């Protein structure tokens, strides 16, 4: 009879130790995920609907801090350029240095170096541009369009500027990886239409790992903290059951 109490005490001490460890590890993951995110990502509120339906006006996005040299075609980037009003803007890169951009091919698609590009992110029913154009992208520059092609003020509006509407790679400060708010916004996918071109598309940042660390940490914290009350309640229930049956 005394042995049973000792066994329960032993299990209780082990359970308490494991629950404490779970809370400690959970805190490291939870806080570490937020710190990691603060170092890698910058939040950005989308000011206009020029990138709809990929991101809408007022959406809160997570943009990975990157060097402009790492930008690839298809990336949605945050940039700032004096000729564009010297304020943070968000657009999609459709051309890089050396590219010939044109609209539109016989099938109605945007072309890059003569290759027609599938653009599934455009608003349903929208064409790739509201008017025909061609542009040569200088080396070290980027050609940018909004996904809402009918209303976006983008490289097409600056074709007469130096660089044929392009901006320097150095103007880019971040690449958008995900919509943080609203919560159903999800990740920004890399478009397959640009993957076959030289340089391919970029790889997603660590946003999935960061969110995984935060969620796992929260689960461990709540699970570990809940162990004590749950274990205590179960122990009292077992003791009450033994007393009723006459076992002490």
UniProtKB/TrEMBL annotation:
Bilayer disposition of the protein: Single-pass type II membrane protein
Record's keyword annotation contains Transmembrane helix: yes
CDD domains in the cross-refs: S26_SPase_I
Gene3D superfamilies recorded: Umud Fragment, subunit A (2.10.109.10)
Group of enzyme by EC: hydrolase
Superkingdom per UniProt: Bacteria
One Pfam family here: Peptidase_S26
Record EC number: 3.4.21.89
Residues annotated as domain Peptidase S26: 25-181
Keywords: Hydrolase, Membrane, Protease, Transmembrane, Transmembrane helix
Annotated compartments: Cell membrane; Membrane
Molecular functions (GO terms): signal peptidase activity
Protein name (record): Signal peptidase I
Source organism of the structure: Streptomyces kurssanovii
Lineage: Bacteria, Bacillati, Actinomycetota, Actinomycetes, Kitasatosporales
């Amino acid at each position: 009879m005394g042995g049973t109490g000792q066994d329960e005490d032993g299990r209780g001490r082990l359970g308490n130790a494991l629950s404490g460890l779970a809370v400690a590890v959970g805190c490291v993951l939870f806080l570490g995920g937020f710190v990691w995110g603060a170092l890698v990502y910058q939040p950005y509120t989308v000011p206009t609907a020029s990138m709809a339906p990929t991101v809408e006006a007022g959406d809160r996005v997570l943009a990975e801090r990157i060097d402009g040299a790492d930008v690839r075609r298809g990336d949605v980037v945050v940039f700032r350029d004096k000729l564009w009003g010297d304020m943070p803007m968000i657009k999609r890169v459709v051309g890089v240095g050396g590219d010939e951009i044109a609209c539109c091919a016989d099938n109605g698609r945007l072309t890059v170096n003569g290759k027609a590009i599938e653009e599934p992110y455009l608003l349903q029913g929208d064409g790739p541009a509201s008017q025909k154009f061609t542009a040569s992208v200088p080396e070290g520059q980027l050609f940018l369009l909004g996904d809402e092609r009918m209303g976006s003020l983008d490289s097409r509006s600056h074709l007469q500027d130096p660089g044929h509407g392009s901006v320097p790679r150095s103007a880019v400060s971040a690449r958008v990886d995900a919509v943080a708010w609203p919560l159903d916004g999800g990740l920004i996918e890399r478009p397959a239409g640009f993957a076959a071109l030289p340089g391919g598309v970029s790889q997603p940042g660590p946003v999935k790992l960061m969110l995984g660390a935060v969620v796992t940490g929260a689960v461990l914290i709540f699970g570990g903290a809940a162990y004590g009350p749950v274990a205590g309640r179960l122990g009292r229930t077992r003791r009450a059951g033994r007393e009723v049956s006459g076992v002490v």
